[in-house]
# Entry
Amino acid sequence: MFPNNWCKWTPVALSADVPAGTVIPAWTPTGDVALWRSQSGQLSASSDRCPHRGMRLSHGFVRGEALACIYHGWSYGRDGACLRIPAHPDLQPPASINTRNQITTEREGIVWVVNEAQDEPPPSFDGYWPLRSMTFQASIAALEAAAGAKADISGLIRCTLGGETAFLLAVTKGEAETIVHVLADKNASLAQRIAISQAGEQLRRDAESADALEGAN
Amino acid sequence: MSDPMIDEWYPVALFSKLDAAGRDTLLMGHPIHVARTGSERVAATEADGRSLPVRIRYGHVWTSLGEPKKELFDIPEADEPGRRLVDVGVVRVRCSPLRAVENFLDIAHFPFVHTDILGAEPHTEVEKYDVEIREKEDEVWATKVKFFQPQAAKSAAGGITTDYMYRVPAPTCSVLYKTCPPRPGEWDVITLFVQPLTEELCDVWPWMALYDDEADMTDLIHFQQMIFLQDRSILENQIPRRLPLDPGMEIPTRADMTSVAYRRWLKRHNYTYGAQLVAQ
Amino acid sequence: MKLYDYILSPSCYKVRLLAALTGTQLTLRPVDFHPGGEHLSPALLALNPAGSIPILEDGELVLTESSAMLVYIAAKAAPEWLGSGDPAESAQIQQWLSFSHRLTASLGGARLVEMLLRPGDLAALQASGVKALRELEAALAVQRMKGDIFLTGSKPTVADIACFPYVALAPDGSIALDPYPSIRLWLRAVRALDGFIEMPGIHRLHELKPEPAKETA
# Structure
């Protein structure tokens, strides 16, 4: 699972799920983030709370190179600094208003976030490409049991889904909540990718019912 | 419960919709039952059978868990002849009752949340207005508030600069006076009465007393429901759910002077039900 | 055409939305659903004994099911919203129209309990809502693998309009949309359509308009 002793980065989303000019909510061990991509394609991870009135910034909107809050339109740049307060168009916002951004990077279709600079980049998975992100209402243990495989030393779960080899990047969000990014062979056909995606649904049903049985005992 | 908010009056039902079977609800975490007992009579009781004081006013039934030290606040305009009294109906919101009131006092969000109705870009500037805590009445007042509105009310056909006054007569109630397009010189009255179910859950009862002879009553109800439901998704996504009273956790600007005064007034009275006191 | 309408009803909004997208004129007749309960008045029950809204009247024709209204408006004003006529696509559109009634029952039911205090088993409604959202997410993930964004192809149809409102408003019933990246992009694609109109609970996509230029004195 991620992050772990070797990798402080958390895989938070797939690059394809945050196109230019959009913002999505994401989770890291150091707090919820509003993950957004500027019009020019730059990614940022802002704390998911507007410093003005506490509104979740992931409900906001991206214009140009700035993320704006849906509540009052306060906008923030890639460094987290407040750029504009629409109620006071002539005011230069004080530097103290900042969304405290984390560090982001992208590698082969996966967005990784970390809260302090790292010497090592996040891992790459040669020959594999992410297919989907899914949220399981299940523990990592239940996921491993359902997948019939344990995470290896790098944190990766290698298993068979829909008859194909797949990799799972798992992030523990809570005791019974796990975010799973499913990776498939880069050269998998459309039919193979659909089969893996469908098998992912069954994997989730299995993991969640394993946890439910555990709870009943 | 040592919070002085226990001695305040709260709305707990719409009088016109209350029947003998009544309504089971919560007031500050306590289960209560409210029911009609006669054509102009209502009973409110706690789970142990204790009778609670009752007032029937402004279309709603009001009660209190404690011993109210003051009569229910007055809205003199409510009794003026010629006004249409509008029961807007209840809406439940997962937020602090204090956050619901604070949002009602805010105009800077109009262009972004009530887009093309109460506000629109580029008219986002909030000009300076006056705020005071009126010591004699012990109420928060904001006056000389102005904002450009593309469609100020159901009866407003085009955009106008609308004048507002805001008044907080009780910790979970606010009264808004705003430009009345059919009768220049008069004020329409729009209220937000909030029933605190718990510190993070409330039933909101908007109510209005308008000069409007034209609009259909249902149109008036729907206009106000539309406005409040646009706010609801904001209120359910503020973090923390409770209203922070300590400075530092949220950053106000000059446009937020009403909010600053409201928070200060709450703190001064130790009105903390629904408030967050320790910065996290 | 006359629509018996309630501003907070997602089913009424489906009809208003498709009318706006196809340039169809509607005469709105507001119904005091809440708090008045006017949909259960003798006059409205005479029109629709089921006691539900919307109701669409066009001359002698009275329709009481929102999916039928969508099909009627599309057939009259903009047949491209019924798809290309390909048998498989036509059947899929019908399937999504049926599916939309599950959304109404589950997500819509939870919303009525949470927002307007109607009686109901909230936990059960939320659980069936989550199940429906997962099915939708899985289907949309496959659409994206095929390079499409809408439910049955690269163009929106009545199927998208039938499913959009209750999904977009799921948070009104305390059902989070955070775990569904493909649903998020699909919602955004619908919201970005030319002529799109909102309903309360669905905010304007402010990013579609540029930031207002600073006025120079």
